[in-house]
Amino acid sequence: xxxxxxxxxxxxxxxxxPVADLIDQRIDRRLRKxxxxxxxxxxxxxxxxxxxxxxxxxLDLLLGSRGRGLSRVVSPGPxxxxxxxxxxxxxxxxxxxxxxxxxxxLLVALESLGVGRIAGGTMNxxxxxxxxxxxxxxNDEILEIGTLYGMFSxxxxxxxxxxxxxxxxxxxxxxxxxxxxPGTPRRNDPSGTPVDEQAVRTNLALAGPAGxxxxxxxxxxxxxxxxxxxxxxxxxxxxxxxxxSAEAVAKDLEWAEKIAAPGGIVVLDDFGDPKWPGIKEALxxxxxxDTRFTYLGKAxxxxxxxxx
Length: 308
Hints:
Helix content is about 55%, strand content about 15%. It is of the alpha/beta class.
C-alpha cells in the first residue's frame, strides 16, 4: 500500500484519529492562550486610553477653552520662538527660558484665582511678563495704560518681586464696564466678568501689599486731568495698552516721552498684530522724529523701547 492509499484507508484513518485529535487540542489551547493574551492586551489598552481621556479632560478644564473660554495650551513652535526673542532682548538664554516658564505658571494661577482674565494671547503675556524684569528698569515705578482686569499688573508685581524689586504700580483706565477699542462692537467680556475697578482691586490683592497699595486713576490716558494726576513721578516701566488706534498710540507715546525715567522701559502691546495695524504705524512714525526712545526689539506681539 502506497502512502497515499494508507492515508485515505478507513482503517488508517481510525488509527490516526487520536493523533489528529491531540494536534487539534494543542492548536485549540494555543488559540485560547493567544485569545486570552489578546484580550488582556486590549483591556490594558482600553484602560490606558480611558486614563488619557481623563487627563485630557482635566487639562482642558485647567488650560483649555472648555474651562476658561480662552485656551492657554502651549505649542512647541511658538514657545521656542518666544524663548529666542526674549533671549535676544535680555542677552541671556537661560534667564529667558526660566522667566517665560515662571510667567506661564503665574498666568495660569492668576486666571484660576482671579476674576476675568489677562488680555492677550499666551505667548504675548508670557513675553511681556518674562522680559520686563530682565531689562532691569531704572526704578520700580510702573505705569499701565489700559488694564482690563488689572491681572497683568498683578503678574508684573509678582515677577518684579521675584527679582528683589519693590514695584509701585499706577493704573490708568476708563473702567467702562466692557473692553473699549475703536472699530470693535461693545460687548460683554468672554470671561463674563464686568470690567470695573472692583474687579481690578480684587485681582491686585492677589499680589500682596504692593497690589493693595496700587494707585488707580479712572479716565482716558489722553485726558489732561488724568495725565496731571499721575505725572507726579518718572516711571521705570510704562506699558501702553489702551486705545489701539494710530492716533491714540501716538499720543500715549508722546506722553511717555515726558514721564519715562532715564533708562526706562516702554512696552507697546499688540505691536505687529495684523488686527491692530495702527500700533506699528504710530511707533514707526514716532521713531523717525525727535525721540528719547530706542527700539530694543519685540517678543511675541510686544515692542520694547528704552528711554535715554
